[in-house]
Each structure stands twice: as structure tokens, then as C-alpha cells.
Predict the structure.
Amino acid sequence: MAVTSVQGCRLEWIDWMKTIGIYLVVLGHFDSYGNDFIYAFHMPLFFIISGFLCKKEDNQGIFWKKLWFNLVVPMLIIAAANFVYACILQLIDGSFEFKTFYWFVRNVLFGMVSGFDNLWFVYTLILLKIIFQYCRSSVLFYALTVVMLTLAYIYNNYDLSAFPFFMKEPNAIVDVCTAYPFFALGILLHDYKAILKEWNHKGMLVLMGVCGFLLVFICCSYNGSVGLHCSDYGGNMLLCLLGGVSGSMMVFAVSKLLGHASTYVVIISRGTIIILGFQKIIIALVRAFFPASYADIVFAFIIVILFIPLIIWTERYFPLMAGKYRINKIHPV
């Protein structure tokens, strides 16, 4: 993901937002209590942040270099590592089949959710960044939101079995449709970065946080489960959009109130792609010993903390997995 800075100035509230967001991702993958609430906004939050931090590159070569090293290479490495781990487990229990290699290639090509990896988000983000880079007209870029939402509606309400790209299995190509409005909102908010950076009225932030929480609760109560990983907006598209924006607004308010981001928060913020890529392995190990309970709230926190040394090690010794283009700016060679 992009570095948490705009025009060279680090935005600590973005670090907090990404840290809170990745914690909610881990907690949501425990498939425990409060999942409908979490799923209503935790991935829209990341797409809004990604749009906010995204900028067009005048040099197309720089754009593709950053896309390749920041997103594509880490995604491929993490996907391969998860695949090897899954194969080892299958060899141990005797369920391994050679056609597993076919499914791995297919899943990578279409950005599908499978096994332990959760990289559909990265694949979807790659596609969104390409659209933004090559959409020369801002009016056209925002107008595409209507097109994408229309496609999402068709996907959710009509039988498209005749079209292979619109298979009912989770895949990043159709996920773009539901993620697009959140990413576009982030792009729009980028123009107001100075206002957002300076806005620290505690009373308004508390009110924003409370209102955001209540709106998400109402949305998930009436809209049901939302799954952006399969372009599923739940029962109502408008409630999905409102829930995603309201939850992101809530996290923004909390992040601004938290203020200074510690070194550990910044590390977690930089390493969200690593946590995203490997957290399901640890969750599976925890679930093997502990059933679903409110203790999952603590387990998710511990898992995020445990990733800190891995992120530090990866940035220093295996920067390709952490995003070489970005990490070399942190640890110059």
C-alpha cells in the first residue's frame, strides 16, 4: 500500500486508521461476534485510504515501477508462500493433489480468495490504480462510479453464468465494481487533505465517531452481511455505501482523537500487506485450540502485535515482500 504521507508530510491519523483497520480485518477473520458490523466498513475503509493516498504519476514508467514493487511483487510472494504452506498441510494429511497447482494459478490470475491468503484486496487495488492513472478526465473517473455500481447491482441480482469473469466465486475483477465508489471517495477527499489534517475539534470528532457508530449499526441491522471480497453489498446497495462511509468516518474520528502515532503504530501501518497476507495462518492455529468467544478481541490484538518484528525483519532483509520501492526510502541501500 502507499506510504502514509502526502507531499512529504506524514499523516499520523492515517497510520492510526490503517492500524485500526488491519486489526478489524484480523478480528473479522476470526468469524466470531460482531462480524456484520465489522464487515460493513473495514474494507471500504482501506479503499478510501488507498484512494486518499493515491496520486497520478506524470512518468508512466515510474507508475508501473511503483505498482510492480509496491503491490504486484509482494502479492505474488505472499500468495506463493501461502500456497507452499497449504501444500505442506495437505501432504501431511494426505489430501494433496497436483490439480492444486492449477487452482493456485487460477486464483492468482483472477485475484480470488482461497486458502490462507487474503490478497483479493491488493489485486483489486492494482486494478483501481490503473483505472485512475489512465482516466485522463476527472469527470469521467467519477462518472464511472455509476457504471461500476450498476455492474455490481447486475452481478448481485442476475444470473451471469454465461460470462466466466462474472462467476459467483469471489474474484477481484468483479470486486472492483463495489470497491470503486469508496476508492473514488478517497481520491475526492485528497483535495481536502489540508482541512482534514488541521481539523482537531474534539467535540465534533466525538460526535462524528458516535454518529458513525450508530449509522453502521443501523446499516448492518437492515442490510445484513456485506462481503466486498465477492462484490456482495448485502440487501441494499445504498445501505452498503452508507455503512462503509459511516464506519470510515468513525475510524477517522477515533484516529484523530488518538493523536500521536507511536513507532509501533507506524510499523503496523507500513506492514498491513504482510499482516493481510499471513494473518489467516495464525488465526487457524488459534482457532484449533480456542473456540469462538469474546477472547477473539484479545487474540486479534495479540496477532497484530506479533507481526511487528516480522515487519521490521522483512523491511530490512526481504524488502521485495514489503514493497521494495517504498521500503528503500525507509532503509536506503
About this structure: The chain has a mean pLDDT of 88. The radius of gyration is 19 Å. Residues 60-93 form the longest helix (34 residues). The CA atoms of residues 15 and 269 lie 5 Å apart.
